[in-house]
Design a protein that fits this description.
Blueprint lengths: L2 E4 L8 H20 L3 H19 L8 H12 L3 H18 L7 H10 L3 E6 L3 H11 L7 E4 H4 L6 H11 L6 E5 L2 H10 L3 E4 L6 H7 L3
Parallel strand pairs: 1-2, 1-4, 2-3, 4-5
Helix pairs in contact: 1-2, 1-4, 2-3, 3-4
The protein binds magnesium ion (MG).
Length: 215
């Protein structure tokens, strides 16, 4: 085994918890700025997400919170240049503030580094934000390569994503494992390219699992 390819969100840290805290703070700020309730702010965010998905679904831009904020302003018929950047910053400041790696991550990365098994990140989102998360998680020194859907132009489970990761790792599919929390995107996507997939579930002892699989 020459490389383990890790998904980032909900595999290395809890996206759900961070997003929950960040959206709560965002709803509060939007409700203050626009004199609407927090529930209404949540509804506007939902509409904005749907609108952005309709426009650029299947690309990294689909997840770009800046577009959501701009879209909310447009829905509310308020000036985006006054609010969008501030809301975007509040969302990510809170998100990153509560972003910590799962317990298994550092011991597993230490082990793989010692074994000279390359550690890659394969993730759907824009590169700027994923770099910020990796920095906050303090895992950058372990990461050998990263592939984002922004650079590839499509998202998991598209084979282009997995092939780009193999290219960066200089590995054949049989020399790689993919670890991720999404059966469809991470595991089935990897398998379609001949890469063995390991489904991550919270609480699973990843290091033991990898050792059992021959790492
Ligand atoms: Mg994930």
């Amino acid at each position: 085994m020459k490389t383990i390819i890790f998904d980032l969100d909900d595999t290395i840290y809890s996206y759900k918890d961070c997003n929950y805290a960040a959206e709560k703070a965002l709803y509060r700020k939007i409700s203050q700025d626009c004199l609407i309730t927090e529930d209404e702010a949540a509804q506007y965010l939902k509409f904005a997400k749907r609108g952005v998905k309709d426009l650029v679904g299947g690309t990294a831009a689909e997840h770009n919170r800046f577009l959501y904020m701009q879209y909310i302003c447009e829905l509310l018929k308020i000036y985006p240049f006054r609010y969008a950047y501030n809301w975007y910053r509040i969302y990510w400041d809170i998100f990153l503030n509560v972003c910590y790696p799962y317990e298994y991550v550092i011991p597993t990365f230490e082990y793989l580094a010692k074994k000279e098994i390359k550690i890659g990140i394969l993730t759907d989102l824009t590169v700027y934000i994923q770099f910020k998360k990796i920095k906050k998680l303090q895992i950058e020194k372990y990461i050998d390569y990263i592939v984002t859907s922004e650079e590839v132009g499509c998202e998991k489970p598209h084979e282009k994503m997995f092939l780009k990761a193999l290219e960066k790792a200089h590995c054949a599919p049989s020399e790689a494992f993919m670890l991720g929390d999404s059966l469809e995107k991470d595991i089935l996507g990897a398998k379609a390219c001949g890469i063995e997939g390991i489904l991550y579930k919270n609480g699973v002892n990843v290091l033991d699992l990898l050792k059992k699989m021959g790492c």
